[in-house]
Amino acid sequence: MRFELSGVTLGYGGDAVVGGLDLEVRSGEILVVVGGSGCGKSTLLRALAGLLPPRGGRILADGQPVRGPSSERALMFQEDALLPWRSARRNVELALAIRKVPDRRRHSERWLAEVGLGEHAARLPAQLSGGQRQRVQLARTLAAQPRAILMDEPFGALDAQTRAGMQQMLLDLHRANPATVVFVTHDVDEALILADRVAVLTPRGVEAVLDASAATKEEILCSLRA
Ligand SMILES: Nc1ncnc2c1ncn2[C@@H]1O[C@H](COP(=O)(O)OP(=O)(O)OP(=O)(O)O)[C@@H](O)[C@H]1O
């Protein structure tokens, strides 16, 4: 899925958060959005998800205006959004039920195996570690086969080693299931590991969009301070 934002202003109530946003998200890429706290990264994701209508400008998804939420655009947060009374497998099955996929148990087990949790399918979220719960969330998100995945600091609460494992898993899974990913983080190192391109967001809009294979940490930090 390709997104095009032109002259987009976003805000809540009387307050504008970010204005004059121009951005293209290419189909199948991992675009990482970095920016200081409060600059509007989560707000941008909400707008792409169709949860927050822009006050000005336009947001197109594959050429069509985004008018509301769609199962084609999945959101994944830092906080755990699993249902505590359902096992890992039955949490993943929910995503398959929405798509009316038959043989949900088998598919759910396959997605859990993809994220390395095949052995733990019967466990409740409370019986899993933070990193394992994020892996169940990732399996549930991917099982819905969205065309765009909007990720809001999904690994922010994990320790460094678990986080590195999750980053690699996301890259591997993206290679096999190339949906468009918009990934928000305030961690420039994480951005450089994951991104095809890095968008630097400030309250004035998108300050720069850098090719991650050529960009340096200093260059990104410099755009952040601009
Ligand atoms: N539901 C809301 N109602 C009113 N204001 C909000 C709401 N959500 C966010 N804001 C405000 O909008 C601004 C941008 O918030 P947002 O969460 O998008 O920032 P962020 O860049 O994701 O920050 P962080 O990195 O700290 O998570 C902030 O000033 C915040 O207080």
TrEMBL record:
Q: Does the keyword Transport apply?
A: yes
Does the record carry DNA repair as a key word? no
Task: List where this protein forms a coiled coil.
Answer: none
Which InterPro entries does this chain map to? AAA+_ATPase, ABC_transporter-like_ATP-bd, ABC_transporter-like_CS, ABC_transporter_ATP-bind, P-loop_NTPase
**Pfam families listed in its UniProt record:** ABC_tran
Recorded hits in SUPFAM superfamilies, A to Z, give:
P-loop containing nucleoside triphosphate hydrolases
Spell out the protein name for this chain.
Putative nitrate ABC transporter, ATP-binding protein
Question: Which organism is the protein's source?
Answer: Catellatospora bangladeshensis
The uppermost taxa in this organism's lineage are: Bacteria, Bacillati, Actinomycetota, Actinomycetes, Micromonosporales
